[in-house]
Design brief:
It is built from ten helices and no strands. The chain is mainly α and 210 residues long.
């Protein structure tokens, strides 16, 4: 790829990354195009070369967020666990491990944005909803594996939705209190809930949240 083309692609990526970071920190409404350009180190002219509007930028950022999250979770070590329940518990434990640093570093771009624009911008809402639904598909597949080995009175869809509601709610509580402990405690309760849904022999090794 020619150097000019690489720089064009890099500036687009920087704009999307800056948008995700700023929206997680300040919200969609408070994030200005000028702020995004400054954080990305590009001109406003470059911004309009890539995106027609702030709304267009937010939609594309949702797609980048979805791709990044899918890649992150696909590489997690819990996938190596041979037992389906260990993989699901490992997923919950991994969600807790990700809660580190400032709230803006581990909160969800899609969840943050959708709370703010669900009525005012259907296009952004739908783009963020795709990201959330894709993660639910990923989680449902893990739960379906568990249900084949450990039958329980739940459906994969209902449990996946509940688990994601807990995680998103944990982010909101942490923001409300400005304290990540609210999120950590919520994930601990979620871990215990999953354990109680799928009881098994205590002789099996379990991966506990740290």
């Amino acid at each position: 790829m020619p150097a000019a083309a690489r720089e064009t692609a890099n500036s687009r990526t920087r704009l999307l990354t800056a948008t995700i970071d700023l929206v997680r920190a300040h919200g969609y409404a408070a994030t200005r195009v000028d702020d995004v350009c400054a954080a990305a180190g590009v001109t406003k002219g470059s911004f309009f070369h890539h995106f027609a509007s702030k709304e267009d930028l937010a939609i594309e950022a949702a797609r980048q967020w979805d791709q990044g999250a899918s890649h992150l979770f696909s590489l997690a070590e819990y996938h190596r666990q041979p037992d389906a329940l260990d993989r699901l518990l490992g997923y919950v434990a991994y969600r807790k491990e990700l809660i580190a640093g400032d709230i803006r570093e581990w909160s969800c771009y899609a969840g943050t944005t959708i709370q703010e624009v669900h009525e005012t911008s259907p296009a952004i809402r739908e783009a963020c909803a795709v990201s959330i639904e894709n993660h639910l598909l990923f989680l449902r597949a893990m739960i379906e594996d568990v249900l084949r080995e450990y039958p329980a009175g739940v459906t994969a869809d209902s449990l996946a939705t509940f688990m994601q509601a807990v995680v998103q709610g944990a982010f909101v509580m942490a923001k409300a209190r400005q304290d990540r402990q609210a999120a950590l405690d919520s994930i601990d309760h979620l871990y215990r809930h999953v354990e109680m849904l799928f009881p098994r022999s205590t002789s099996k090794k379990r991966r506990k949240p740290r």
